[in-house]
Amino acid sequence: MPGTTIVVTSFYICPTNKKKVVLVGSSINERDQMLFISTDEGSSFQRQPIAFTPDTLVFHPKEEDKLLAYCKEGRLFASTDLGRKWTLLQERVTKDRVFWSVSGVDVDPDLVHMEMQDSSGGYLYVTCLIQNCSDKMVTAQFLGKIDYNSLLVQDDYIFVKVTTGNRTKHYVSYRRNEFVQMRFPKYALPKDVQIVSTDENQVFLALQEWYQSDTYNLYQSDPQGVYYSIVLENVRSTKQPEENVLIDILEVRGIKGVFLANQKIDGKVMTLITYNKGRDWEPLAPPTTDMNGKPISCKAPDCHLHLHLRWADNPYVSGTVHTKDSAPGLIMGAGNLGSKLVEYKEEMYITSDCGKTWRQVFEEEHHILYLDHGGVIVAIKDTSIPLKILKFSIDEGRTWTVHNFTSTSVFVDGLLSEPGDETLVMTVFGHISYRSDWELVKVDFRQSFPHQCTESDYDSWQLTDLQGEKCIMGQERSFRKRKDTAFCIKGKSYTSALTVKPCQCTEKDFTCDYGFERSHTEGDRCFADFWHDPDSPPEDCHLRQTYESTTGYRKVISNACEGGLNKQQSAKQHSCPLLPPRGLRVGIKGQMLAVAPGDDITFIVHQEQGDTSSTKYQVDLGDGVRAIYQNLTVTDEPIQHRYENPGVYKVTVKAENMAGHDEATMYIQVTAPLQEVHLEVVPIAGRNNEVNLTAIVLPTEANLTVLYWWIGDNLQPTLTLENSLLTRFPETGEISVTVQASNGRSMVQDTSTVQVYDNFQVIPLSFSRNLDHFNPNIPEWREDIGHVVTNILAKVTGVPQESLVTVVKPGLPTAADLYVLPLDSKPAKKSMFVDKIVQTINHSSSVYLCDSSSGYHGAADGPGVWALAVIFLISIIATGSFILFKFKRKLPGNRNVYAQMHNEKEQEMTSPVNHSEDTQHIIQGNHSGVVLSINSRDLHSYLTS
After folding, report:
1. Rg, C-alpha atoms of the chain
2. In which element (H, E) is residue 304 found?
3. Global pTM?
4. The domain containing residue 777 runs over which residues?
5. Per 3-state DSSP, what percentage of the chain is helix, strand, and coil (rounded to 5)?
6. Is residue 792 in a domain?
7. Is the domain of 270 the same as that of 339?
8. Model confidence over 20-64: pLDDT tens digits?
9. What is the DSSP string of 777-821?
10. Which end of the chain, N or C, is less surrounded by CB atoms within 10 Å?
11. How far apart, in whole angstroms, are the C-alpha atoms of residue 8 and residue 19?
């Protein structure tokens, strides 16, 4: 696009065809995001507008025109024409957890593996085709939810993890078979797992165990990726921003089985190398001279070469160690000599024989690029200042030539080579200044070589380890290399491998099997761990099948030795016995034990040990539904059920065969969500007196509700299964009481306040039985009636309303307590004030004190020396009865409220002539009392005050 300045936010190069480049950004005068697509190494671009802002682009590993685009908000798009048209695949997808199909493993090349969030907030592993990835067409590949950011699809393997409580289980699927739990040593208890390598039918991973903080242990698996044995302890790790973890281990490309690792012990970091996939590790031998040819005093075992094994943040620079598949044996890295790795020292060292001998080449770190199968090594200093020179070597780093690649110094952003390992053309890209456009400088080394290499231009070298051993991974291998004096191009037809000769197997070709560890003090023998029984049959051992008991050794995977020693030869063949079922468990898909009526439930049965094919399983779902299954734990038909009614159901599974039986039980709560909880508590309490707290939970049929009681400022609640709690308040003042009710599916809360006093009085009140017919027994009604009585007493007696509190009690018959409170803060005056109020009530024209030995008592001081019985008789007119309820209705006409007290003399009282027969019946007899008459307007004002 001549004449157009592109503001680039990110760019991507097709891994299979580097001529295809996609830039993300915009033209300088445009705000909308654009893709700028090039099919000629960036010489020209086609502008393509897009309706979203991509955060990541992912090229298909085989089909170069297919792209996936991930947006920050979780949306995933797909394109089949190099970004010209896009289709929304899914939303709520996890970043960096999207994978194209793997050739040779997945059937359809258009399949996409992804981790996505479901409607409940959990995460699932699903797949779909890019042609149709709607919610209905998405297929869940793992039964149940997985941990966030845990999906990994790599070669033959798929990994997920599931955390329940404080335990995390890791699962693997080999070649898209069913997921199986990964088996680590029993007490490894992993905190984190990082996959290092999955090639050659084996998983190489780093596992951080429960006692580790900045190190990991390395483990290797069997071909299925299920059983793991330790190969190296305490490999250094570094936590990066965004919780990324870097493990100091590097797979050396070009020669299989070679790894570098930095081991950290007692704060000291050392670099180790293995040539047989972790079977043996050794420190790197130091060079004999420095870069100027002068002898070095560094001698083993006190001094070795140590390398930084960091990855580069920029994918277009090499990082601290550089290897390449097409340049076997060539390793170049930054590090130092000494007894340990030093962070600030980054001298450059090179080896051309896969780590046996090393040479120093630079005193500072450089970015490295291999051209023509390593025939040309390009180095540019890793620095923050602008550069105009590069260095290159055509003799594996023995000599270096300085080249001015530009006349103007450039801040180097990265190095690129043309497609193909044979290329001799590279590009340096960067900026002249921080605000300038990109500068791309192409460097062509083809003119430096006059002709194509012939066979006479090559020598051979044989791979050996640090001890000079030629048989590595069961083979003697020799490789072709160009002579130092040959100035020729290796070209496209070059192959590095020369000869391969199998070796006879020796002890070094075997490693410890699962459940065994090597004892270096007893001749490198493998001993069984204390928790492992090597003769026990495997979990999937069925009757009439055979199994082989392990000798404690297994051949290193990909080791090609033949004949000779066979450490597995003494393994014995056994017939699978009929084992009784053991470790039977029953659970629910999704791990929920509290469900709603009508929910569809899938029960899962798991059996840790014992034969399953000959075992009968009796299932009782607790609501009358029973069934019998054969081979239940491996059946493809799960147990599905639906409970219609609330309740607690006991689910039982009994497994039985001729050798024994086992039983598993679980309890499932079927309950609707809680709607409300109301806290019933007296508003007045005496210090250190026993107080009853009651919670009314709706719906009333809610089962197994747990109640949490918070009293005052105490952050530790009291838990009960009962809806009441007896407690005491040790301090006076205002105390807050909160109750939460939970049934596993929901939680509701209510709060009340209690005033705690040292001195107050309580007068019990009772009401006419007629009132019981209109008592709905709900908190609002009781609160309203309490207000009415308090207002009446305050009005009639002249006692301040703030000194009276009437609390109507729950239940029938309707009853209440009248609390008489002090107003003055001084204790002596409090007592005098309470007595004065009681005397006022006694001498009121509406209240008569009769029996001094009846029911009055002091709440704080125990039983009183005198008592007061107050009976409120609320008259009900048969033809127009009224209801005191939550809804405050006005009542037409006059109604009479009667307060009546018993008198020892039982004087006869004559009722008013205008009352109905019901009213007359209530007040007939030998009684002494007075009638308090209020009209409907007064009653309404009491109810609403």
Report:
1. 43
2. strand 304-307
3. 0.69
4. 761-824
5. 10, 45, 50
6. yes
7. yes
8. 888 787 766 666 778 888 887 777 888 888 888 888 888 998 888
9. --HHHHHHHHHHHHHHHHHHH---GGGEEEEEPSSSS-EEEEEE-
10. C
11. 18
